[in-house]
Fold:
Amino acid sequence: MRTTQLATAFLLATAPLCAGASQTLTIYTYDSFVSDWGPGPVVREAFEAVCGCTVDFVAAGDGAELLARIQLEGTRSRADIVLGLDTNLTARAAATGLFAPHELEAPSLDLPVAWDDPLFLPYDWGWFAFVHDRARLPEPPESFDALIDSDVSILIQDPRSSTPGLGLVKWVEAAHGDRAADIWAGLAPRIVTVTRGWSEAYGLFLQGEADMVLSYTTSPAYHLIAEDDATKAAAPFDEGHYLQIEVAGMLANAPNPDLARDFLAFMLTEDFQSAIPTTNWMYPAVTPAEGLPEGFETLMRPETSLLFSPEEAAAIRDAAIERWRDGLAR
Amino acid sequence: MGRGALWAGGLVAALLIALNLGTLGAVALRADAPGRLGAADWAALRFTLWQAVVSAGLSVALAVPVARALARRSFPGRALLITALGAPFLLPTLVAVLGLLAVFGRGGIVNHGLAAIGLGPVSIYGPQGVILAHVFFNLPLATRLILQGWLAIPAERFRLAAALGFGPSEIARHLERPMLREVLPGAFLVIFLICLTSFAVALTLGGGPRATTVELAIYQAFRLDFDLGRAALLALIQFGLCAVAAALAWGVASPAGFGAGLDRPVERRDGGSLMLKAQDVALVALAAAFLLTPLAAVVARGLPQITELPAPVWQAAGRSLGVALASAGLTIACALALAVAVVRLAPRPRIAGALEGVGLMALAASPLVIGTGLFLILFPVLRPTAAALPATALVNAAMALPFALRALLPALREVEATQGRLADSLGLHGLARLRLLILPRLARPLGFAAGLAAALSMGDLGVIVLFADAQTATLPLQLYRLMGAYRMDDAAGAAFLLLAASLTLFWIFDRGGRLGARN
Amino acid sequence: MARATDGLHLQDVEIRQEGFRLTADWTVAEGARVAVLGPSGAGKSTLLGAIAGFVAVSAGRILWAGRDLGLLTPGDRPLSILFQDQNLFPHLTVAQNLGLALRPSLRLDRAEWARVAEALERVGLGEMEARRPAQLSGGQAGRAALARALLRARPLLLLDEPFAALGPALKAEMLALVAEITAEAGATLLMVTHDPRDAQAITDQVIVVAEGAASAPRPIAELFADPPEALRAYLG
Structure:
């Protein structure tokens, strides 16, 4: 790991020489990444300090809208980098033929699963989980079946318009396979509403509209670190928890391919990675040298991680969404 | 006005056709395969139609007694109340939904009240939530349209009724029902169209996949499958539905302009009985409570946060203000050009009708398809971020145009009918006619339309999402980003700011129009 | 007798509207003062509307001094018209209403504003420049409209009963003012009225509009001495 970091540092040090100071690196990413409260501003400043270039973020909705945007623009896109897809999308993204291999030897990653994708490199990850308020719900259900049998109310997102929503559908499929349709039918009475995106559901949860909300195991860290509020917690499920791994890749038609590759290498260095936990509220793909911020050690860490390969994820998506729809409509 | 007016009107019409249909064409052309609809799309179509009919019917039905109560009572603060009741229509959906939940949600005021008297909670989520929200948004519009109808009944008619000793039921039969027959179909149609293309409401309050609207299905086709063919086909179906609805209501008299003054109660001598008085007071109070409590909840939650708001929120508010003003200016320019051409073409009713239809077309369009199409058209020639704010102002203007046109047309017809000959005889043409006759005489509806356009634009979270980056975020987008960054307190403050900015903009323009009106 | 090219010439004119037809074929000499008399609904206003350019002519031509008016917009025709009502823009001041006569853009120079003031003085409204029409009495509004016609100085003045709502004394006063103004300017006057006394007060000829035709102008004394059938029924 140390050698690759050294190699990266060397690469970065020489980058300005070959790249030229006037270059602009265009990064397409999802909206919350570039927001004033997301990792964008920090990442931009850090990379501009070493690359001698200008970083231009272009935002598009969420991960899936981001991919749609790239497909809309096709080979005429100005983008060098697309940052913010996840493993639910990478198979479709690869199939567009718009992405180029990163050709980087990745440093050893702190992921719960092995990584060897030639097109995409991960920058952060997290487990989906149901978050609750300990004061309002001291003993949350600890499996989907327990949730079905309880009288706990939940908020979820629409898998057709939201990344966590699709994550939950995959979670049910990975954990229960054949029983997925029944699980959904059983969950239906527990569901208060299905929102378009994460923000609406989480906002409703904080307003007290439901006992639990589908989010990430890292969500309680925000309340603990930013608000000094230790009441929020993620409920551990016996089945294990589905993973989301967020990735970036460079485009085959990138106007600045060398700079793009430099950025992908930079993405796995300390400067980028240390910004992730308290701006994106996810686990960094490479744990910073001084470890995770204080408070992360209190988070629930599932014993089992569930994840479909990109190909499997793409193959079962439509049928899984169909089961979700039918189950809830029953 | 001469040929110039027709050219300007034609140009605006061409622009609108390009914006509404050209964008759809751009999306369809870019599609890899012709669109095909699945079972879920048909279900979405059925739900959309059903909820739009119920929402529009309920809004109109509830508006009739409220409008009648407002028409026959005068009380201190009546004008202010009528203005305030219009607020939900101007409200950004996101803010309105938050307000509705604070009242009708699981932890809201209503359920707290029910729990206090030992009753179980009622759920807002599901089809009933979608309909409740649509009634919340559109009851004010329906009330305004119908109240306008009431005030259009000449006072002499009521005097005659009093002289003949009519009671409330005779008045209803001879004066009110004929008026309602004229006004209701138009009011129903407008609200039906608004509910038909609704997006954000169904997304949060729908309760599940059954409450999927066509506009949501368009979004999903675009986002989940990148199926542009299906998105275009769905948008076309949405257009078709709106056209059929418009055709069904065709021939029925269109509602009078709702930009005219509503601050005059009808002078009438019926309704003097104590029972009727109590009934009217109760109705107005109920409507006010239903419409204003959610707003109060937004204020109560957000006002304390306003001083804590981070700088980017204020910057976004400044940008939104600029977009809103640009959009209002554009709306007024386009609406005036169209209205003048429509009135000018009155001797050729088919062409005039078609032109008016083009102006109302945006009611049937899918903002998402317009945004995507505009993106496809502009992307090869412009950097999307450079086009973000102008594109937003443009699309917002097109969306506000139907309402502006509705407000201006009757007033302009009136001006041309009473003073057109005099202006003609004096050779008052072109810009001089605009400056000396039309603008001063239309100050009221112009102020109203500009206020409406500015407020609607202020709260719109539509195409900006496709174009924006960190530097071009508008206030609604910034509000959304705050929610996405867990910052719910700041989001509440931003929601209040958005509410205050929308209503203030509307108030200033509307007030300015009233003051500018010289009779 | 004036030459054929002088004055107002209606040449085989026919006006057709739904269930209505009016023909006219005659000449009014330049400088003549003509009353247009006839029962309600016979088409007096329609006749004036056609001359002013508000009503389309289905056949024939309307000429002034030999020039076909058919191609001219109402504002470009060599005439001023006063309607039954709405003769002043309610949102403009009296002075602005008059100023429109000189420049429809209202961008008047100092000399032109002075002419406006002079015209107001002439009709006895010297102090009323800054008022709006709503602040004027009926008689004052009529004077203001006449003052504007004076400023426009077109050779033909059409009055479509603009003083019908005034009391008898006031109306007589206004008619006297009309007579003065037209005499000063040498203008030709066509005045709709349904009151023979108005006609006798200031006009010397009469056009009778009845039963689908506008008759050629006849000297007023001759007409009242021997009224035609249509007029006799109307006069009772």
Summary: Chain A touches chain B through 57 residues (CB under 8 Å).
